[in-house]
Amino acid sequence: MENGNALNRYARLAGMAWLVVILTGITAEFFLRMPLIVAGDAAATASNILGAEGAFRLSIVADIIMLLFDVTAAVALYLLFRPVNQLLALLATAFRLVMGAVLAANLTALTSLLSVLHGTDSAAPSIVQQLLDAHASGYAIGLVFFGLHCFILGALILKSRYLPRLLGIMLMIASLGYLIDSFAHLLLPQGSALLAMMAQTLIALALLAEVSLSLWLLVKGVRA
């Protein structure tokens, strides 16, 4: 059985790493990449990316940093919750590592996009759109595994009593947001207003749950 000091070291490492994951992920997607993408206009998107190529490349680097810290968080969380239930802790870790592998491979869509833009193919804008769509689909697939990770982690929090039960409940509910959003993207490519609203609400809760959990782990640690 791990002693309290060791558990709190794992908790603070997990909290720090997860907080970096949140900050770099938001920066990459919402501050660097999303402003360059014009929905339904591949030519304008291609022009924006070429006009701010440094920001687009920086978004890829931010994603890589996010994934490095995500692996760190996954291992620290495994060590933290291993005394509670080793099998569930291992399963949660495996789902999170698979998510990281999927997202890492998915970044090749963005690097390929840059290669297309620097080529001479007159069909570049349409290819750019296809690569952006492929990246979005890859992200949706990766978040299925992350949603399952969050659900199991929430269950471990409830079982452990290391942390406030509310954090575990929030994380389990929030995991549904990732699963609904991902499967809606994959099964309903035309979209559904009701599902989109439901998924956005749950993903907002997911972000709140993740930030709350990471800050609690970093600042307060666990009740060992």
TrEMBL record:
Domain of life: Bacteria
Keyword Zinc: no
Ranges that cross the membrane: 12-32, 60-81, 88-116, 136-158, 165-188, 194-219
Keywords, in A-Z order: Membrane, Transmembrane, Transmembrane helix
Pfam family, one: DUF4386
Protein name: DUF4386 domain-containing protein
Organism expressing this protein natively: Sulfurimonas diazotrophicus
Higher taxonomy: Bacteria, Pseudomonadati, Campylobacterota, Epsilonproteobacteria, Campylobacterales
